[in-house]
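[stage:ingest] chain + small molecule (S-adenosylmethionine)
[stage:ingest] validated
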Amino acid sequence: MRWDKEPGRLNMTHQIAQAMLNRTSPRGNEVLLDYGTGTGLIALEFLYSVKKIVAVDSSKDMLTFLQKKLNADSITTIEPLEWSIGSDPSQLPEFDIIIVSLTLHHVPDTSQAAEVFYSLLKPGGIIAIADLDPDNGESHEPEMTVHHGFVREDLMEIFKKAGFTTIQIDSVATLAKESSKTGVLKEFPIFLMIAHKDK
Ligand SMILES: C[S@@+](CC[C@H](N)C(=O)[O-])C[C@H]1O[C@@H](n2cnc3c(N)ncnc32)[C@H](O)[C@@H]1O
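[stage:predict] done
[stage:export] tokens:
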């Protein structure tokens, strides 16, 4: 898979994963949801820090690629699963931690996503969302239906409305990519939002 090989992308993903690990402080007994796991790069960095990871994605190809990686290393505590917001959540357990890296901008209804994430978390649970600041539509090809980044205050308000508390956002990495409008290499800032479900 292309982005398992690009050093810049791997470095950025590592920075996001380390920031997520630092700010969620898992103790080893948690059940974690990685929403939009892709090739599982972030999930794999949580491997020895939690008990079990459900790695969901809407793409079968991504999940097949991830399963091959897991088989190659005999990893059984990460479970790839085809699932997305809007599908029946009854097949999912309750989670202590949810992580979402560079995927929320692909979900059409952000308020619905916030409500579903809230319902999937146990009381006392924590969510970590990494995504792009507003990017003027330059970080993706125009034919891709995505949000063109998020205004941090607006996103915090959406998650507050869904029930989350103690919400914090700060910058954690940048995505280096050619602008889809100008072709010029740009650095797109990435934030990490942490939010809690009260006990
Ligand atoms: C940019 S990749 C990020 C992958 C991984 N989280 C990372 O940071 O390396 C976005 C992933 O979200 C998945 N995706 C897109 N729309 C989705 C949706 N509505 N629900 C679940 N996954 C989705 C894509 O298939 C892709 O694997």
